Amino acid sequence: MFAKPEKISVYWARLMEEMMQLGIKSLGIVILMSAFMGAVIVIQSATAIDSAWIPDYTVGFTAKQSIILEFSPTIMSLILAGKVGSNIASELGSMRVTEQIDALEIMGINTKAYLIRPKIIAAVLIFPVVIIFSMAFGFGGGWMASFGTGLIPEEQYLVGIQSFYDDNLWMITYALIKATVFAFIITSVSSYHGYYTSGGALEVGKSSTNAVVYSSVLILLANLLLTQLLLI
Amino acid sequence: MSFGDTQVLHDVSFKFERGKTNLVIGQSGSGKSVLTKCIIGLHNPEKGQILYDGLDFSAMKKKEKKKIRTQIGMLFQGGALFDSLSVIENVIFPLKMFTKMSRKEMLDRANFCLERVDIIDKNNLFPSEISGGMQKRVAIARAIVMKPKYLFCDEPNSGLDPLTAILIDNLIKELTEEYNMTTVVITHDMNSVLEIGDNIMFIYKGKNHWEGDKDSIITTPNKEVNDFVYSSKFLKLFKEKMN
Q1: Residue B65: its chain A contacts at CB < 8 A?
Q2: How close does chain A come to B139, measured CA to CA in Å?
């Protein structure tokens, strides 16, 4: 896995390819979900905190906390575990059952380093970027909801999401640390399940399912652990 | 070589000749594929030696094994072409990984190999867009692109119609002579045996049971070999006519 690459240029190309495949190609679904979820968070918060004693900007503050701390890093990672995890496991699983991995092995290529390492490095580098996009579009969705529904004045929403400015940097760092750890979990667990597939098409399907299930459970556990370690 | 309590191969000893097509035949489950996987290093045998030109492959370090592997071409049963790469990129792949050739040199070599196996104007297609026979030929082109010293073919004509199967068999034989390779073909197809069997090894219950060539396999009195060779009605009739 950590062996010296046979040819740096080929591995570099693989890394770029994986960054495109795992990160950039996931942006569409991430943006769509984040925008809608941001809007829903704002609408739900605004209707729940409908009191003269609570200022309107609290809705923006709540949306910011929810999006940065939990929605973007954790929920998005769980969604990516489904999309990216199953993709990795089925890709490697099919390569295994159709002897493509054996073919690489016989050529003298370190298959773990060639197939798995670029996926892990790419995900660890690109997932935080994807999560930043998720945050931005989550806030955008929330702004659209406040603007479109008129439940709270949009300037109050903007005040809310900018409140406690000093804490924001740490919150974003915390979210990005989580995203990096989750990226490692998703790619390594899914690669493991895909790489060690044996049998046929049915087993590829099983590996794919296992990859998503195990990644999701590990993400939830890591989330709890990281929250304890970093926020308390 | 065992898997759990089941001993798949034992007392197996073969010598494969350079420039000849060496066939390993036997019934399904006799241990042919395990033997190939041991020879090419995908399985590690518990006992014994695998010698490549006198060098003990099983005792080699990773780096030395890697060197030998770059001299091995392998044709898998299903072709094992990389789905995500086009025909030309599949053939170029070993050159990209192990040589310092320029892009033009790689393309020239790959195109030469593809033309040699009669694949023309298919460079930009993906494996899923070409027929099974073409996939096998592209896999052969990929196997010979590095001018290997050793070529292993695992049931090269399985799933092909008889005409294409003969074409593939003859292509393997021609390339073996052209490149003076040590070719090992794992098969249970009697057409292949009779078409290209310079040396034939018959494996029975995990042991090498009989050795000969395509002429002697027809006349051998060995019961197990006879049962295997004349298992089809057509060959039985052929034998009766010959007698």
Answers
A1: 108
A2: 10
A108 interaction partners in chain B (CB closer than 8 Å): 65-67, 69-70, 98
**Is pLDDT at A74 greater than 80 in this prediction?**
yes
Residue B104 reports pLDDT greater than 90: yes
Do the beta carbons of residue A73 and residue A182 sit within 8 Å?
A: yes
Q: What is the pLDDT of residue A94?
A: 96
Counting Cα atoms < 13 Å in the Cβ hemisphere of B1 gives 26
Residues B162-210 have pLDDT tens digits of 888 888 888 899 889 988 999 999 988 888 888 888 899 988 887 888 8
Nearest CA in chain A to B82: A100
In B, which residues are within 8 Å of A105 by CB distance?
Answer: 42
- Which among B76, B97, B98 is the nearest to A99, CB-wise? B76
The answer to whether the Cβ–Cβ distance between A6 and B98 falls below 8 Å is: yes
Residue B94: what pLDDT?
A: 92
Nearest to A6 by CA among B110, B67, B141, B107: B67
CATH class of the domain defined by B1-71+150-213: alpha beta
Residue A89's Cβ-count burial label (10 Å; 0-12, 13-18, 19+) is buried
Domain boundary assignment for chain B: 1-71+150-213, 79-147
Q: In the A/B pair of chains, how many CB contacts fall below 8 A?
A: 49
Provide the residue count of chain B: 243
Inter-chain CB proximity B70 and A108 less than 8 Å = yes
Residue B114's alpha-carbon distances to A186, B97, B121, B147, in angstroms, are 39, 19, 9, 13
The model carries a pTM of 0.85
Q: Left (φ > 0), alpha (ψ -120 to 50) or beta: where does A150 sit?
A: left
Q: What number of residues does chain A have?
A: 232
- Residues of A in CB contact (< 8 Å) with B are 6-7, 10, 94-95, 98-100, 102-103, 105-109
* ipTM here: 0.83
Residues 6+ apart with CB under 8 A from B61: none
